[in-house]
Amino acid sequence: MKRFFISILVALLLSACAPQGPATLTVMTHDSFAVSEEVVAAFEQANNVKVAFLPSGDSGAALNKAILSKDAPLADVFYGVDNTFLSRALEAGIFEPYASPLLKIIPENFKLDPQNRALPVDYGDVCLNYDRAWFEAHALPVPASLQDLLKPEYKGLLVVENPATSSPGLAFLLATVAEFGDPGYLDFWAKLRQNGVTVVDGWETAYYTNFSASSGRGPQPLVVSYASSPAAEVIFADPPVQQPPTGSVLGPGTCFRQIEFVGILKGTRQRALAEKFVDFMLDTRFQEDVPLQMFVYPVNPRASLPDEFVRWAATAENPAGLDPALIAANREKWIAAWTETVLR
Amino acid sequence: MSKVEAQKTDVISDAGLSGRSIRLRARRSRHFRGLLWLPALSFLALFFFYPLARILGLSLEIPALSDAQALRVMARALTFTLYQATLSTLLTLALGLPAAFLFARFTFKGKAFLRTLTAIPFMLPTVVVASGFNAWLGPRGWLNMLLMAIFRLSAPPITLVGTLGAILAAHVFYNTTIVIRVVGNALSLLNPRLEQAARTLGANRQQVFWQLTLPLLRPYLLAAGLLVFLFDFTSFGVILILGGPQFATLEVEIYLQAMHYFNLPLAAWLSLVQLLCTLIFSALYSHLIRRTLVAAAPRPVETTSPRSWRARLFTILMACLLFAFYLLPLASLPLRSLTRLEAERGQRGEVQYGLTTRYYTELFFNRRGSVFYIPPVQALGNSLGYAALTVILSLALGIPAALALTRPGRLEYLLDPLLMLPLGASAVTLGLGFILAFNAPPFSSEFSLLTSPLLVPLAHTIIALPFVVRSLQPALASIPVSLRQAAATLGASPVRVWREVDWPIIRRATLSAGVFAFTVSMGEFGAASLVARPEYPTLPLAIYRFLSQPGGLNYGQAMAMSTILMLVTGLGILLIEKLRLPGTTEF
Questions:
Q1: At the topology level of CATH, where does B63-333 sit?
Q2: What is the mean pLDDT of residues B157-163?
Q3: How far apart are CA A129 and CA A230, in angstroms?
Q4: Do B368 and A40 touch (CB under 8 A)?
Q5: In terms of DSSP bridges, do strands A222-226 and A158-161 run parallel, antiparallel, or are they unpaired?
Q6: Is residue A310 in some structural domain?
Q7: What ipTM does this complex have?
Q8: Minimal CA separation from B175 to chain A, in Å
Q9: In angstroms, rounded to a whole number, what is the distance separating the alpha carbons of residues B239 and B125?
Q10: A17 plus A157 within the same structural domain
């Protein structure tokens, strides 16, 4: 028994000291992060470095972990804070500024931090998705606006994510704030609750367990997801399909545009490598990989989009807009009030 | 003069010491006892009281109580916690009472097995129980998959996960054994002559039950109910995994406020409310226990096989009910971990059904798209390492403290409750305290060790220490002082006395305490969910993350890891049972 414990202890101590080889650059991300193997391998080879990705929960939870450990950072680079949470990251001071030379290519409207502590990487629209087959079978028109969701014929059809634990959930909440104002959005949500809205903790559960058109074949034919989700359904279909089984509601004011950022974590011991990685993320190779891996749009206009993406993915005509300063000042208040209204 | 005689005279002259040197010795022994306390107390001070003080400090700093929103959140969480705990307790009593009656009065085939079966969940980690229920009744569980296959349904017909029902069922599953043990013991000690006398005097069955048996059982019912209530009150994993976002107890709300809303002051306030409540309930319980611990009959009542048709029907129905209620979730889990019922990655094509070991072999691979950047099996390695450290730490701290407690002086009466205080703090509160205490200066920058993975075993040691001390104490106390004195008289040095007298006697208890600490650490979820670094996840954390991921492969891996955890803790429980000294009691 004693020998058993000692061997375990030794194993633990050994596992604590990472193997010594080429330097390791650690990139902290949210759970939805994805990248092609060969794209990362190219970076690793070019810089003689090993890149380790550290998925740390949903984007909010990952950011909070980065903030809680800012005095002894877990990683060198943090990717995945979006415009809904940006102010929290900047106020906590977890990032070091870095004016990447590639920033000059990127359109101004994506650069929300003038000090370049957080650099834009990609963007996507959070929109309602619907199950085509279900709506055809029930001969029901697809809702065209947020207000439509309150109609009795859509009772019990929608699943949304908890904005406290999920970033598309928060984005959708912000879309309703933009549409109905404060405190009008609470009235909308109270009515939506009456109309049988289902709330789950994260996008994965909402889309893959509750949504009827995904492989999970769940009970709800309407889900808060991304404008690019229908393209993903075609590209990953097994067996192949001609048309996506889902569609996005793209009407004015129904979607919210999310911009995701990367930043160098304060206290990194590999500043030079971290800078290279940030450049790499903004450069065309990575940017062209982004659409099919994470189903978001690259911010770099020189990156060309894959054909399937051009054909099936869409961007919102007129996404809801909210002043970042307003979001920063009210985010926690809105989430708390939403929780009171919808969950409790 | 022979050698032995010389030693004897030495002893005699030793015995004739002057009063001054006796006092000196007494003082030295007090110093020695203080030394025994030192490791445990300094550890508690640094890793329990300091984090607690940080929580208190933060809550005093920010007047969350003047914030209407914060007040509402606290009131909601407290109300729901009380509500679900009361409901769970009542349901547990409703199942536990007839079950206790069954075990106390009747003998039947498979009784010993059924008794063990009902006791197993009590020690199982919450993630395992949650996974078990998920594997049986969840949207991808056996029952739903079966019904969907039979009736060609497109959606799972039963929604249990995400409802209050799931929470209540899991709580009943967990705690019925408490009622069976506490009330069952009382029932078997109840003198049957009393009931016979009442029947002779003309009372019918109902009257006997309502006017005699129930009043006599009341203190035990209360004690069992209160204990069940206390466990339900601090429930965390069950609510988080089986309940979904609609339900937040104080524990869950602390976690949410700290990790998701990032409102640390409110989390601190909630922790204080939680701490206060558990302290009140624990005090009530120990007060009650002190009053009820009076033996009712000299020896247990003989159990008989059921004779009347009523008794037979009751026995069969009750045994079947318990059997189904306990076996189905526990058996669904390992079976589901070996069976493919849905597409690996969420394809729409035909699914190959059948047995598979893929979920286990897949644990050794690290896919870039996976939620961890390490192979999942490494989470098992981490947990084993954490548990080993917890064992070493809690024994190193617990043995001296238990030694000091064997001959309690004034100091011990003061320090003993202090040592037991961590029992009253919830794991999530402890985790929050660790975050506040060790992720901030002065600890973060200078001692980078403290923001390392070590935080997990340190927290687990705090949780395990009271149990370790309590299980070592009786064994140490059972060593007759005369034995040590005799050894010393015969010339053994203190070290040799320890090695030849104390150690052989407490070896079993030490092993048992160690295994207990090991099992606690393996399954602990609440504290780890706050303090574990993402690159060193524990097994329960890995299970939690995999359970919510899409696709059959992730779900299967969660089931496989839960099965492994169930086996490890099951072995631990078995070992503890084997090592149990005759006559020691639980709870």
A1: MetI-like fold (1.10.3720)
A2: 82
A3: 8
A4: yes
A5: parallel
A6: no
A7: 0.75
A8: 27
A9: 13
A10: no
Q: Is the pLDDT of residue B3 over 60?
A: no
Residue A3 has pLDDT above 60, yes or no: no
The pLDDT, as a whole number, for residue A172 is: 95
DSSP state of A211: B
CA distances for A75 relative to A26, A62, A94, B474, angstroms:
5, 12, 11, 48
Same domain, A241 and A334: yes
Give the number of other Cβ atoms within 10 Å of residue B332's Cβ. 23
Q: Which of A5, A28, A164 sits opposite B391 (nearest CB)?
A: A5
Distance from CA of B155 to the nearest CA of A (A): 6
In 3D space, the residue among A174, A185, A180 whose CA is nearest the CA of residue A323 turns out to be A174
Record: contact B347-A69, CB cut-off 8 A: no
pLDDT digits (tens, 9 = 90+) for B90-104: 999 999 999 998 998
Partner residue facing A56 (CB), from B441, B534, B548: B534
Q: Are residues A118 and A135 in the same domain?
A: no
Choose among A11, A74, A344: nearest Cβ to B534. A74
- From A298's Cα to the closest Cα of chain B, the distance in A is 20
CB-CB under 8 Å, A200 with B244: yes
pLDDT number for residue B64: 59
Q: Would residue A57 count as lying in a domain? A: yes
Mean pLDDT of A12-26: 62
**Residue B208 to residues A135, A157, B192, B356, B365, Cα–Cα distance (Å):** 63, 54, 11, 56, 64
Domain extents in chain B: 19-56+377-580, 63-333
Cross-chain Cβ contact B69/A333 below 8 Å:
yes
Is the domain of A134 the same as that of A216? yes
Residue A263 and residue A247 in one domain = no
Provide the domain count of chain A.
2
Could you tell me the two tokens for A31?
């759970």
Same domain, A138 and A218: yes
Q: What is the mean pLDDT of residues B412-422?
A: 79
pLDDT digits (tens, 9 = 90+) for A29-68: 988 888 888 899 999 999 999 898 888 877 888 898 888 8
Domain B19-56+377-580 has CATH 3.10.340.11: no
Min Cα separation B95/chain A (Å): 29
Mean of all residue pLDDT scores within chain B: 81
- Give the residue from chain B lying closest to A75, CA to CA: B535
pLDDT digit string, tens, across residues B505-563: 888 888 889 998 999 999 999 899 888 877 788 999 989 888 877 667 788 888 899 99
Q: Which residues of A touch B444 (CB under 8 A)?
A: 71-72
Of B72, B441, B453, the CB nearest to A71: B441
Quick check: B348 and A238 CB within 8 A? Answer: yes
User: Is the separation of the CB atoms in A95 and A265 below 8 Å?
Assistant: yes
Residues of B in contact with A295 (CB under 8 A): none
Q: How far is CA B29 from CA B33, B36, B114, in A?
A: 6, 10, 50
Q: Decide if B550 and A209 are in contact by the 8 Å CB cutoff.
A: yes
Residue A325 lies in a domain: yes
Query: Residue A211 sits in a domain of what CATH number?
Result: 3.40.190.10
Chain B residues with beta carbon closer than 8 angstroms to that of A224: none
Check whether residue A87 and residue A138 sit in a common domain. no
- Find the domain containing A228 and state its range: 124-256+315-343
The per-residue pLDDT for B288 is: 79
**Helix/strand/coil for A52:** strand
In this prediction, residues A221-246 reach a mean pLDDT of 83
User: How close is the nearest chain A Cα to the Cα of B397, in Å?
Assistant: 17
| Same-domain pairing of A229 and A281 | no
